[in-house]
Amino acid sequence: MNQVRKADPNNKTVSENRKARFSYEVLDTVEAGLVLTGTEVKSLRQGQANIQDSYASVEGGEIWLINSYLPEYLQANRFNHEPRRRRKLLLNKREMAKLSQSVDREGMTLVPLKIYFNDQGRAKLLLAVGRGKKLHDKRESEKQRDWSREKGRLLKERG
């Protein structure tokens, strides 16, 4: 018997950085927690966030999410948060050491891929360790994407 799973309302993607996979060669991904205030969580639950221009930085043994945009929660009154504040990422020591070494030694970049709510209803960030693509690499990935699209059309036409 097949059991049909309902889509969990807590487990949903809030914001996705689709441009990151085009601009960076993603080598490894890590799930990190976010330190948020109450109004930031409510704003995320409304599905309002933007991580397009954001990045993560290692500072003082901690990893911070910089330049992410979470708009103010309208019903919060004077207790609102600052939309572009720096947010601390929650990782264990081993993961932080691994990420900081890859950034320092190998010249990698920490790029946020998406913000989502997990099964327990907690906000998580999918963080990627990536290397910036050169222009010819971007053209190559564009060619592959176009060819796969064209191949799909041809197969669909022929049945």
Automatic annotation (TrEMBL):
- Known role: Required for rescue of stalled ribosomes mediated by trans-translation. Binds to transfer-messenger RNA (tmRNA), required for stable association of tmRNA with ribosomes. tmRNA and SmpB together mimic tRNA shape, replacing the anticodon stem-loop with SmpB. tmRNA is encoded by the ssrA gene; the 2 termini fold to resemble tRNA(Ala) and it encodes a 'tag peptide', a short internal open reading frame. During trans-translation Ala-aminoacylated tmRNA acts like a tRNA, entering the A-site of stalled ribosomes, displacing the stalled mRNA.
Q: Which InterPro entries match?
A: SmpB, SsrA-bd_prot, SsrA-bd_prot_CS
For this protein, the record's SUPFAM superfamilies field holds: Small protein B (SmpB)
Q: What is this protein called?
A: SsrA-binding protein
A single Gene Ontology biological process assigned to it is: trans-translation
Task: Tell me the domain of life.
Answer: Bacteria
Gene Ontology molecular function: RNA binding
Q: Which PROSITE patterns match?
A: SSRP
The record's listing under CDD domains reads:
SmpB (cd09294)
Asked if Cytoplasm is a keyword of the record, the answer is: yes
Q: Which UniProt keywords apply?
A: Cytoplasm, RNA-binding
Gene3D superfamilies, per database record: 2.40.280.10
Q: What's a single GO CC term here?
A: cytosol
* Recorded family membership: Belongs to the SmpB family.
Q: Which Pfam families match?
A: SmpB (PF01668)
> What are the subcellular locations of this protein?
Cytoplasm
Check the record and name the PANTHER family matching this protein: SSRA-BINDING PROTEIN, TMRNA-BINDING COMPONENT OF TRANS-TRANSLATION TAGGING COMPLEX
HAMAP family, A to Z: SmpB (MF_00023)
| Organism in which the protein naturally occurs | Mesorhizobium ciceri
- Region called Disordered, residue ranges: 137-159
